[in-house]
Amino acid sequence: MTSHVHAFDPREGGLIRISLTYDMPTGTGKTTAHTDTYHGRFVKLVKDEQVVEVVEFETEDPALRGEMTLTLTLTDADGGTEVLAVHEGLPRGVPPADNETGWRLSLARLAALVEAR
Q1: Which of 47, 53, 84, 90 could form a disulfide with 73 if both were Cys (CB 3.0 to 4.6 A apart)?
Q2: Phi/psi class of residue 88: alpha, beta or left (left: φ > 0; alpha: ψ in -120 to 50)?
Q3: What is the CATH number of the domain that holds 100?
Q4: What residues form DSSP beta bridges with 84?
């Protein structure tokens, strides 16, 4: 998967818009056959502690519409940082197991990137 950041204003009230495109088109994209585009805003930013975003997929499919709240909480852990990701308001058209798998893969890649440094 590759991403394209269209807008990213990291301040409370700042806008965000991102497209995620699957390398192998699966026909399961939410905006097009192989792309998920979402937009939203930062609701709360607490340095080194928490990020809260409200986002929504750009789609005509009513099963995939609606605002979602993403809350990332960071806490000190032995030799690093623990990240707790809570995703609320998942549209009924997104299977929770698929969403969880996506989050786990993303967090594993983030850990690998951070730990490599």
Answers
A1: 84
A2: beta
A3: 3.30.530.20
A4: 73
Considering its fold, how many domains does the chain have in total? 1
Residue 80 forms beta bridges with which residues? 77
Could you tell me the residue range of the domain that residue 105 belongs to? 2-116
Question: What is the longest distance spanned by two Cα atoms in the chain?
Answer: 45
**Predicted confidence (pLDDT) per residue in 45-89, tens digit:** 999 999 999 999 999 999 999 999 999 999 999 988 899 999 999
Q: Does residue 58 contact residue 74 with C-beta atoms inside 8 Å?
A: no
Spatial separation of the C-alpha atoms in residues 44 and 21, rounded to whole Å: 27
Q: Which residues of 74-103 are buried (b: 16+ CB within 10 A; e: fewer)?
A: eeeeeeeeebeeebeebbeebeeeeeeeee
Look-up of token digits 């032995």: 78
Q: pLDDT tens digits, residue range 19-43?
A: 988 877 666 667 777 888 999 999 9
Distance CA 36, CA 84 (A): 23
